[in-house]
């Protein structure tokens, strides 16, 4: 019977430890945005796509 009390006590300490680690991770911003960085490489850069250079080397907006 004393083994059960020991296991319950240890499991409560482990659960509290995981909860504290989770709270620290959330406060540090680890879970803020996990979708955008993974697909950022799939999007084209709109600024460089819409600009061209004329013969004088000046940037000019391209008509799309």
From TrEMBL:
Regions crossing the membrane: 6-26
Keyword Glycosyltransferase part of the UniProt annotation: no
Coiled-coil segments on the chain, per record: none
Any one Pfam family match given in the protein's UniProt record, by short name: FixS
Keywords from the named record: Membrane, Transmembrane, Transmembrane helix
InterPro entries: Cyt_oxidase_maturation_cbb3
NCBIfam families registered for this protein in UniProt: ccoS
Designated name of the protein: Cbb3-type cytochrome oxidase assembly protein CcoS
Organism: Flavobacterium sufflavum
Encoding gene per record: ccoS
